[in-house]
Each structure stands twice: as C-alpha cells, then as structure tokens.
Write a structure and sequence with these properties.
242 residues; alpha/beta; TIM Barrel; six-stranded parallel sheet; globular; binds zinc ion
Length: 242
C-alpha cells in the first residue's frame, strides 16, 4: 500500500488558511512545522490550523542553520518557538498532542545537511557529533520525538535515524525549486517534472509511511495543490499522526 505522512515546513504564509481548507476538504492530516518568528507576527492561521485538527511542530524561531549557532543559541531559539506554539494551543483551546521538531535546512547542528547523504547513510550513525548529540539529548529531555510509527522506508532501518529526536523525512517534494529565487537553477523546472519524480520514486511506490516534505511559502501553494491532487489520483493514502 502506498501511504505517506504529510509534513509541511515554514508556516505560516499568506496561504496557510487556504492550505488548511484544501487539506480539510480532502480529509488529509498534516503536521505543520512552523517558524516562531512568523507565528509571532501572525498567529491566527496557526490557531485556525490547530482548531481544524492539524498538528504543529517546531521549526525553530529564526530559521537559521543550527551549524552556524552556538549550542546555547540553538536552545534559546528552540525555546522561543516553543513559546509561540504554546500560545497558539492556548488560544485555540486545544491540548497539545505532542512535541515535534525539525531543524531548518535539516542542519542538525554540525553545518551539514543530512538529506544530502540519504543515499549513502544506511550504516552511518547520524548523531555521531558532539553538538548533535547534545542537541538530541536536549530535545529528548524536553519530550520531542518522531510520530512516524509506520515508516517502512529503508532509511528507517538505520537505528540512528529511527531513534532521532528530531523529525527527518524520506521524500522531499522539491516544491521550492519552482520559486522565483530557485527556478532554472535546479534539475526540476515544472510541476510536471515534480509529478514525474513522484511517479518514478521507487520507495514512494513500494513502502508504507513515507515522510513527505512540502513547504508553506508565498510561492509554493500552486505546486502544493497540484502535487497533492496528483498523489490522490495515484491512490496514495495520507496517514494520521498518533
Ligand atoms: Zn524550513
């Protein structure tokens, strides 16, 4: 069975309200990783998402690469985003289901971007670094964990990936490659290119519980809608979070 967890990074944007309606209409659950700085400016769409049953995760306050910050700066940044998320749950009148964290750029603290190594990371301990380990311990102590119980992607055979306190992923939509800043500089140039990529991904076709990354930015909403509807046409199931 083809099934996925839908995660969306960088909320809120001007489209968050429409995105929530789009997903709610199709009965698709999602975990939104929010930027604390953007929530502080505009909490209403996140409060609304919570009230519609969507889960909220911490995607840092300032969206800076954690490899460029000291351990103490990283912790302060995580906490600042936590404060904004807690406020949203309070205003929404909903109790928080769990704590989830995703590093900006998937830079888990050492300046590297772990997704770049996913083809060759099978036997590597991805937490084998002093600062990464310290951040992992902090996140674990604060109750952060991954909610992807059904993930059967081969990456999750790696115990260090499975045990990570932060949320990783198994398939990135590359929706950002079509934004003004990036278009033409990367291998995928159109929504059709990205649809083909989905259709050609072996693990997406053959393993349950793939973890998808999409983005909620000013220029990604059209791509988002097209790709999600494409996946519905291709009979993907979108899994609920526990
Ligand atoms: Zn991000």
């Amino acid at each position: 069975m083809k099934s996925c967890y839908l995660t969306i990074d960088d909320s809120p944007s001007i489209h968050t309200g429409d995105m929530v309606n789009f997903l709610a209409k199709r009965d698709i659950p999602a975990l939104l990783f929010v930027r604390g700085d953007l929530v502080a400016q505009n909490p209403a769409p996140i409060v609304n998402a919570i009230q519609h049953g969507f889960y909220i995760g911490n995607h840092s306050y300032g969206h800076r690469p954690y490899g460029e910050m000291s351990y103490d700066e990283c912790i302060a940044d995580i906490k600042s985003c936590e404060d904004e998320i807690e406020k949203c749950y309070k205003v929404a009148g909903v109790s928080r289901p769990g704590k989830y964290f995703r590093f900006p750029y998937l830079d888990r603290g050492n300046g590297d971007r772990v997704e770049r190594h996913f083809d060759s990371v099978a036997n590597v301990d991805i937490n084998d670094d002093e600062k990464i380990t310290a951040l992992q311990n902090y996140l674990k102590n604060m109750g952060f964990h991954q909610p992807f119980k059904k993930c059967a992607h081969p990456l999750y055979d790696n115990p260090s990936i499975k045990a990570a306190a932060d949320c990783l992923m198994t398939f990135t939509s590359y929706d950002w490659m079509l934004t003004t800043r990036h278009i033409g500089k990367w291998p995928f140039h159109s929504i059709d290119d990205l649809k083909k990529r989905i259709d050609q991904d072996h693990n997406l076709q053959n393993s349950e519980g793939n973890i998808l990354i999409f983005h909620d930015q000013s220029e990604t909403f059209e791509t988002f809608q097209s790709l999600i509807d494409h996946m519905i046409e291709r009979d993907y199931t979108f899994l609920s979070f526990p």
